[in-house]
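User: Teach me something about this protein's shape.
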Amino acid sequence: MKKNKVSILTKAENDFMELIWELEPINSTALVHECEKKFEWKKSTTYTVLKNLCRKEILKNENAMVTSTLSREEYYGACGREYVEEHFDGSLPLFLAAFCGNKVKLSEKDKEDIKKLIDEC
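Assistant: First, the predicted structure itself:
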């Protein structure tokens, strides 16, 4: 995956990645069967999505074994950082102000967790 920008996934790709993260490493043949059961996909659909995610460098398919190039947490963390960078000029305070401005009520535990994260940064 490119270090400077993450690839945003479609809903189908995201669902596929969630399955991969749950089952990896997984043989591509077994993956076809899992996708048939879970998504009712044909073999060709599974391989098309797999090929696209390999091209985006999010997955690897080596010797018919499929693995991710980054964890779920790494992917979603990169997406979040990219979103804040693109839409809030990289300002986490601006993002939080917008988030809380929509009348989101944070619990005391949420506030404590955020304070702890800030202290650890």
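Now, about its shape. The CA atoms of residues 7 and 56 lie 7 Å apart. DSSP finds six helices and three strands in the chain. If you'd like, I can walk through any region in more detail.
User: That's plenty for now, thanks!
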